[in-house]
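Fig. S4 source data, part A: sequence.
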Amino acid sequence: MADQAINALSTKTAPETSDQLLLVGAGEPQLIDYDKLADAILNKITSKNYALDAGQMTLLAALNKLNSETPRYENANYRGFSDIITALNAEKDSFSTAASYIFTANLAGGAPHLIVFGIDDTGYGAGLYVNYVGKISFFKIEKGSFYNFKM
């Protein structure tokens, strides 16, 4: 094997747990298990601090921050679009300006609905609501308050 040319070796497309790779570093060349290399790479990615809009943080911390700051309207007893507009107004102080939001709301019975909207830095914006059968309704945002938009 030592006298075989590298380009003459077969190619493997999916490493297995027991596979080993050659690691050439400062000292003698060594073998490392594929699983241990994968763990080391994952550790490096998840522990590294990244410069984000919210400051320096790990990917896990950024995801947790995003998840904790996103309003949730799951399993609510909404009857339709007007109930969702009422709920958005009840929570309007939790929405930041100069931001966009995408989330779901469940109507009575559990049918999922999609809500997408954006608010500029002055508190004005627009959004849309898609119900589970694909009907789209539009709404406007003025100074942080949500209004049904008639076309």
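Fig. S4 source data, part B ends here. The longest strand covers residues 99-107.
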